[in-house]
Amino acid sequence: MSLEEIDNLFYLLENPTRRRILQLLSRERLYPLQLSREIDVSQQAVVKHLRILEEHGMVASRDEPSDRGPNRRVYRASRSVSLHIDVGPTTFREQAAPMAEDAELSTEQLRIRSAIAEARNMEPSARMDLLARVGEDLRHSLRDHEQKRQQLLALISELNREVGRCSRKADCSYDERRLLHHMLQNPSYTIEGAAAALGLREAEVRLLLAGLEERGLAR
Amino acid sequence: MSLEEIDNLFYLLENPTRRRILQLLSRERLYPLQLSREIDVSQQAVVKHLRILEEHGMVASRDEPSDRGPNRRVYRASRSVSLHIDVGPTTFREQAAPMAEDAELSTEQLRIRSAIAEARNMEPSARMDLLARVGEDLRHSLRDHEQKRQQLLALISELNREVGRCSRKADCSYDERRLLHHMLQNPSYTIEGAAAALGLREAEVRLLLAGLEERGLAR
After folding, report:
1. CB contact under 8 A, B104 and A151
2. CB distance B27–A181 less than 8 Å?
3. Which of A40, A88, A172, B8 could cross-link with A176 by S-S, CB 3.0 to 4.6 Å?
4. Are the C-beta atoms of B53 and B21 separated by less than 8 Å?
5. Residues B17, B51 contacting (CB under 8 angstroms)
6. Which residue among A16, A26, A79 places its CB closest to the CB of B7?
7. What number is the ipTM of this complex?
8. What is the pLDDT of residues B141-156, one digit of tens each?
């Protein structure tokens, strides 16, 4: 997703009330009064947040008949998206991606999916037991996964430190260092692309590149 | 990290200018004028953002002697943290964690770390080649990793849908469904904990639990 979309997701998700609303709507359809009661925010404020979320496709609504009185508008979460940011002394990564509900599964994961489906024929208590167990396994895998991701990020951070050392040792200018970073992040960089990304003219990029080549930092 | 800390990180990172500042400071120390030029925002605004980031420990500064004129204040990114949120029709996860710079590495990862360190004795061009190659590998691993995480999230989302089906089939009340979700997310839940999380009295939770047990949804 583009930088603009990342900005937009941050704007939508920064608000704690909007995040609580999305959390509740990820479990079931609710109407504004229920949301207002559960998160202890005025119904007026809830409606305002729902409007913003709906404008951005995060929730969808429809009118449903009510037992007492006129139809009421019921909301559900409607958009799957992940927003991740990692910041640190030598790390910066931000990304947003639609969640792939149809992600290709491994054999082990297909087995889990079958188990979830088969549970439908079980007695309620056995079914809930199985779902609880599978849930715990999945949350455990996710934690493992987070840890491995941390390891990868630690290595990337170390690599970035090393590139920094390298460019300092070679007495690179500020723009040379910027170009070097751009080249390392974009192995198939072009002069035009680098110029656009760094806000330089193409002639300047060529000059910087020549300087880096001279010192063996690029070729 | 607590919900309050997640709120706080969203507040700090939602602002696009602050994110650009952190991105630039993750590469090298810079002073406000450099930041202002690079992101095309007034120096006054940059200084304001730096003050907020520093108050929250995201950046640190120190005075450095300048070639021309008085000392100048130089900033660097100082805090490692990851913020992740996944939202969707049956998914809601938000988490913030300090990045573990000293994460325990696998054998393969230790090999990569050694390669990075050994590169220090190489000629500049060979060194940059190696760092570029390692960087590409790591970014590739990270992408693989994201994909596997998506698969896990897809399964968790499927599980949540199934739990929803289960509770609808058993004609659970709204509070019963809330309790059921709480129990599944917290396998070692307590009556006290559930009451606090759901904003109910303990007596109410006991009553709901009895109802769920009667229908075989809890035991």
Report:
1. yes
2. yes
3. A172
4. yes
5. no
6. A16
7. 0.88
8. 998 888 888 888 888 8
